[in-house]
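Deliverable D5.2: sample structural annotation.
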Amino acid sequence: MKPQEQSSGWKAQTGTALAALVLFSGCVRVPTDAEKHKIETRLISASANGQTTLRWDSRRDLVYTVMVGDRFTSSQWKPLPNAINLRGTGEPIELHVTEEPNRTHTYQLMAVPVQAATKR
């Protein structure tokens, strides 16, 4: 066998081995940094008689701020007074908000790690 023929045979074997490796190991998606550090928290709200109750399960390693916006123009979020930088306890947190008559708000919960909150 000529050296050139040996070289092309080796390339073919290597290509086949790599294709088999990819086929059997499957595709692996590596999460981005943002996805690795994503914090998922569900805010539950219930309104009755001019009173809104906000509740979420907290984590000790997080600090929470409740944001409020007008229900129809919620593009301008503002921190809810008395609900800024609340340290998680590991237990559910519940807040009661008195709503203005004929005005409905929408709420969103922001959470950051304790270390990030203390650097501000």
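Annotation notes: The CA atoms of residues 47 and 53 lie 6 Å apart. The two ends are 71 Å apart (CA to CA).
The annotation will be released with the project's public dataset once the embargo ends.
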